[in-house]
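haha ok so turns out i had the wrong file open the whole time. this is the CORRECT one, sorry everyone. sequence first:
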Amino acid sequence: MKVIFEKESLKLAIDNLIEEIERTQNLGFEGNQKKEQFNSEISVNTERISNNKENFERYATEIEELEKRNEELKEEENQKNEKKINLGANKEKFEKELIEKQAELEKYSKTLSEKELEIEEKKKIVQNNIDFKYEIIAEVNTEKANYENLNKREISLKNDIQDTISELDKTRSNKEELAKDFYVIEKNRNKILNVLNDMKVKKDKSSEKIKEYETKINLYQSEYRIKETKHRFLLETEKEKEGYIKSVKVLLEESENNKEFGKGVHGILANLISVEKEYELAIEMTLGAAIQNIVTDSENEAKKLVNYLRDNKLGRASFLPITSVKGKKVVDVKSKGIDGVFGIASDLIKYDKKYEGIVLSLLGKTVIVDDIDNAVKLAKQNEYKFKIVTLKGDVINPTGAISGGSVVAKTTSLLGRGKEIKELETSLKELEKKIKKVEQEKREYENSIIEILNSFEEQQKQMQELEITYATEKQKIDNLDLEILKLDAKLSKLREELEKNELEKVENREKQNLLNIKIETMEQQNLSLSSIIEEFTNLNKD
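then structure:
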């Protein structure tokens, strides 16, 4: 308090000094103003003197007085300046002293303020601890309530676990009882199933075997139908003499219808020779129109037929009497270094010995080769001594003339028609035998497996009845298995919940302990802080 009073006294003294300094400064300002005024008057008076000499003395006197006054004012100004200097020095002294006192005051004030702030902060801590304590107490009460709920939940879970274990044991016991009967059913079922499987293998093999028979029969029948159709077509074609020239067709039909007229007539050359498929085109091109020449026993039969044509104006035809038509075969064919030479045409066909002269006359001097290149080589090497024909129908004549190009494909040629008809007839008979044989084998096999099939059907009926019982009992066991799985899952879940409940109880107790420790810590802190606050209050009551 003493320091505060001294501080106020110093402030008042400084204020008085400042006021005195300001007043002294004001006097100096007034003196300067008057000095300026007097100087102005001197100037005016001087001017008056110069302008009005009669007033010289008066103005001179006034000047002297004014100068004297000016000196007095200067003296007064000097005195005031000295006083101002002295006041300034005192001001610095007082200001320095004031600063020292203020520093001292601030030191005491700072010390006191820091302590007060510290005490205030401690009071806040105490109040916050009190508020927080009630919050923690409320939290502790909540945790206690939670702990009670966890205890109740634990009891409930243990009861549920016990009930589930009892139900699970009961369900397993029921399953064991059912499993005993089911085992017997399953054993019988597996036994019959094994028998059925064995029988099914045999049945499948039998069915496969029958299917093989049926497939073979169908293939034979299909082949038979195709060949039969073709055979009918060829027979019809041959019957109608399709492809024959008109005159030849009429003569052949008349020979077939009139035995006497047809006596000594053998038919056309095409039907009297047999040619491999590979050589058909080459032989046909070699024979040309001669392929439809009619073969007779002698010239007499030929004359008879010629007269018939003339008399009935049926056109012309060529005839080959066996007794008169003769021919020779090429003796020496030079084919060195030439591939693809098949031989003389007459050697490449089949025919009755009695037609040899006719065949040699038409085909004995013709050689068959594979292509036109080899045909040209062969012709040159043999100096064009005989006719050469390729498999594609190209022809090199002994004259050197060459004919060839594309040949229109025929469905059936006259050359191969008769042969094909005979071949088809033979093939159809063989197919009939094969079909009958396979059908007989199939019937015999079906008879041999009737007992197996009947036994299989009987076993299947038994199996169907047993399957119903098996499925019903298995469904019961499956349902119990499902129930056991559900109960196991439920039991596991309950045990997990119980374990979780135990962990939550431990966590709850730990949390309560921590909260109580916090309360105890805060209470100790408040007790210590309250003691400090009370001590400060007692020491700083003033």
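The chain has a mean pLDDT of 79.
again sry for the mixup
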